[in-house]
Design brief:
This protein folds into 2 domains: about 45-145, Nuclear Transport Factor 2, Chain: A, CATH 3.10.450; about 155-335, Lipocalin (Beta Barrel). Helix content is about 20%, strand content about 45%. It is globular and about 65 Å long. The protein has about 350 residues and is α+β, with helices and mostly antiparallel strands. The longest helix has about 40 residues, at about 1-40.
């Protein structure tokens, strides 16, 4: 009997010890797991990083220096300094190629396009943006240039420069242009001698395959050039307007031409680059050049163009209501306030 009692007590002590050991180990394991979760890398939001990069690049186009700095990390603010944006050359387009997670940070790749108002200059800069998360949210911590391309004019010829190339490669000269051209809306037999006084504003697409070109002279024109095959395609000819800037939609489907009339008012025309036709939009009827002027146009997608509208002097109260920001959808031919 004593033996049975001894065996029973022994088993009770052993089982109780195991139970106590488990109760001590389990919370420790749980604590370790919790610490592991806390110390592990936080999952980064790529969509939020892409949104920040898009908003930052828009600020570059609008030349909003105060807002530009809000997208920088504290470290980058110190490194970048406070430089006021110059009027020219200036960014007038961009395309965010990708945003991926790498080594606990977000890495964005984007192409920034810049032009010179009224003059033949274009640059395409491919940059890598390191995006981190600070207490205030996602910010840009580092900007590195991975590729740079410029197109400049010299002696009435356009030269393509890549990287540190000094001389560049000639891609076209003014004498290569056809002698005559038909303006939009005219019959094929209405030909006019194109302006050959020199090159006006130019713009390349984001892929670096096509170039929109304008000329100077009595009848300035817009043409597109396929850089690889050196094929010219006529777009439009003007009688009074002067081209101030050109830009391509993100996928290269459309071309925007910002033009000014002799009175100084600016308008925009949108063209289907493949068909070489101007879109029959309502902007020219709603935003008449004698009442309004358009500025800071830029593409935000494959078919959406954003721009600001300012009023000319002596507008009525109803006409002043048109002043503001707008978005034009080239695919659906629709205009909305932005």
């Amino acid at each position: 009997m004593k033996k049975l009692i001894f065996i029973f007590l022994s088993l009770f002590i052993v089982l109780n010890a195991v139970s106590c050991n488990k109760s001590q180990v389990q919370p420790q394991d749980k604590l370790v797991q919790e610490k592991s979760d806390e110390s592990g890398d936080e999952k980064l939001d790529k969509e939020q990083g892409k949104k920040i990069l898009n908003e930052y690049l828009k600020c570059l186009i609008l030349r909003d220096n105060d807002k530009i700095n809000t997208y920088y990390s504290e470290k980058l603010k110190q490194e970048a300094g406070n430089f006021a944006p110059k009027p020219d050359p200036h960014p007038n387009g961009f395309k965010v190629d990708s945003v991926e997670e790498k080594e606990g940070k977000l890495q964005g790749k984007a192409t920034l396009l810049s032009v010179y108002t009224g003059q033949p200059y274009f640059s395409s800069d491919e940059n890598i943006y390191t995006i981190i998360k600070e207490k205030s949210g996602y910010v840009i911590d580092k900007i590195e240039q991975s590729k740079s391309t410029e197109i400049v004019e010299k002696d009435k010829s356009l030269f393509l420069k890549e990287g540190g190339d000094v001389k560049g490669k000639e891609i076209i000269k003014i004498d290569d242009f056809n002698g005559y051209m038909v303006p939009q809306g005219a019959t094929p037999d209405r030909k006019y001698t194109i302006g050959r006084d020199g090159f006006g504003p130019i713009a390349g697409d984001a892929k670096g395959k096509k170039l929109a070109i304008s000329t100077l002279g009595t009848y300035p024109v817009i043409m597109t050039l396929e850089i690889e095959g050196k094929k010219l395609n006529p777009i439009d000819l003007f009688f009074k307007n002067t081209v101030q800037s050109l830009s391509w939609s993100h996928d290269g489907t459309y071309i925007m031409a910002e033009v000014s009339n002799p009175e100084g008012s600016r308008s925009i025309y949108i063209y289907d680059a493949e068909k070489g036709k101007r879109l029959d939009d309502s902007m020219k009827d709603i935003m008449k050049p004698d009442k309004y002027t358009i500025n800071t146009p830029y593409w935000i997608s494959d078919n959406e163009l954003v721009f600001n509208v300012s009023g000319m002097p002596n507008l009525s109260p109803d006409e002043e209501k048109m002043i503001g920001s707008y978005k034009f959808d080239a695919k659906n031919i629709s205009l909305t306030q932005y």
